[in-house]
Amino acid sequence: MAENNNPASAATVHDTFIVGAGISGIAAAIKLKQEGYHDFLIIEQSDRVGGTWRENTYPGCGCDVPSSLYSYSFALSSKWSRLFAKQPEILRYLEDVSDHFQITPLIEFNTALENARWDDSRHLWVLDTTRGQYLAKTVIFATGPITEAQIPALPGLDGFQGEMFHSAKWNHDYDLTGKRVAVIGTGASAIQFVPEIQPKVKELFVFQRTAPWVLPKPDLPLGNMSKLAIEKLPAIQRGWRKAVASSLNVINFGLRNPGVLKPVSAAARQLLKLQIRDARLRKAVTPDFTLGCKRILFANNYYPALQADNTTLIPHGLVAVENNTVIAANGERHEVDVIIWGTGFDVSHPPIGKKVFNANGDRISDLWKNSSPEAFLGTSLANTPNAFLVLGPNVLVYDSFIGLAEAQLDYIIDGLKKVRAQGISKFSIKPDVLKQHNDKVQKHLQTTVFNSGGCKSYYLDANGRNFAAWPWSLATLKKRLKTFPVEAYDVVYAQPETLRAAS
């Protein structure tokens, strides 16, 4: 990968500073270039682009949104080998897009953000990084919510003598062949890697605190003829993408109207009778909440792996470790060689909050410590001027993260254009606008399946507040994000009124 070796200099003030070169950061840079913006800089703490698709390399890692939709609207690909792409292909796609649009040479790799502070006297962001200090008029925080691997603090864990790692930090150097393995968690990552490791391990103990809904995955390989047809006839791909989007809209309608999902839940329970032969195991993997309350998972090989002779499902959480013995909540004990954490990520508080200080000098994560994160349209934080957050609080819709990021970037780019055209030097979301928006969001979330479906999911934080989901349709979200409403912000103009009018 190309790397910009120019030393950081605080003497230069950049128009825009982008933190992160994952799916959001790459798209932000491309859209800025397309709008004629060239005075921007991107930093990335790793040595290559890709974000979560660079970091997660566990066996079987892939996307549960079809490739046709999990791709940029401006960079459709005919190279996907399957309807649902695996991690290596997605990472390669992101690298190819970054290279094709000549974004890669603009990125300062191996550069991590340490602190970002708003200087109100100059209306500038002061950004301290591992390569020095930068100044910028505006900042786009594109670090994403799925970055902080979560491992619970359990009694005796420090005394475990075997191998231990999180799925997001997979140890490919360690051979699992013939080992006794405990997998903690049955979320989106675990249902992908469990079938991959099951055939090679001696014993596999899967700790399941809550049974998830796992539906069949309509995945198929795409042969050379299919890929050639998609390449030669772009209308096929556009139609494919539209069909996938329409099907996800149907799911989203059900999530907003839980009653619609009851027949689907009943059908899924009947399907379990065909998938799981053993009545006791079938009961253990049958969810006790409405479909959609927790993230819906898709897999064809997970239930067969659970029924293998060397697999034991433990329908309880892990509560302690004693030497090399793992202990379940029901007292069940098993000696293992390896613990693999499939416990997901700390998504309730965007990790970037630990490094950002608002206009009062308060660290964002400290403000969120005893409360829930809030933003206006998932993008603008309270008292945090001239800054945008991508994939922030309460914009989650069952759709492609890439599509959500693009929608937010339409809002951000429109905002930057208006800031430039109107000579605005400082803009900050109005407190009353932020409050009214979030009060309305929380009110309408109460009737969605996330809040009323009878489960405790990562959509709800420690306060029991839904910090993640958007309560309305994707079309409504995209409409709200189409334009940047200057009137919703407190603004300070750099130019006199007459000059501003002339601009």
UniProtKB/TrEMBL annotation:
<dbReference type="InterPro" id="IPR051209">
    <property type="entry name" value="FAD-bind_Monooxygenase_sf"/>
</dbReference>
<dbReference type="InterPro" id="IPR036188">
    <property type="entry name" value="FAD/NAD-bd_sf"/>
</dbReference>
<dbReference type="Pfam" id="PF13738">
    <property type="entry name" value="Pyr_redox_3"/>
</dbReference>
<protein>
    <submittedName>
        <fullName>Monooxygenase flavin-binding family protein</fullName>
    </submittedName>
</protein>
<keyword id="KW-0503">Monooxygenase</keyword>
<keyword id="KW-0560">Oxidoreductase</keyword>
<dbReference type="GO" id="GO:0004497">
    <property type="term" value="F:monooxygenase activity"/>
</dbReference>
